[in-house]
Amino acid sequence: MKAGIEAMNIYCGSAAINVQDLAKRRNLDNERFENLLMKEKTVPMPYEDPVSNAVNAAKPILDRMSADEKSSIDMVITCTESGLDFGKSLSTYVHHYLELEKNCRLFEMKNACYSGTAGFQMAVNFIFSQVAPGKKVLLICTDITRMSVVEGLSELAFAEPSSGSGAVAMIVSDNPLILEVDKGANGYYGYEVMDSCRPIPDHEAGNADLSLLSYLDCCENTFKEYQKRVEDADYESSFDYLVYHTPFGGMVKGAHRTNMRKFKRAKPVAIEADFQNRVEPSLRYCQRVGNIMGATSHLALASAIDNGDFSQPKRLGIFSYGSGCSSEFYSGVVTAKSQEILKSYELEKHLNDRYVMTMDEYDESIRTNKDIRFGQRDLKIDFDRFPKPFKHVKGKNKLVFSAIKEFHREYEWV
Amino acid sequence: MQEELKGIIRENLIEIIPELEGEDFTNDETFVDLGANSLDRGELITLTLETIELEISRIEFVKAKTINELADLIAEKRQALV
Question: How far is Cα A164 from Cα A43, in angstroms, rounded to an integer?
Answer without folding.
Answer: 6
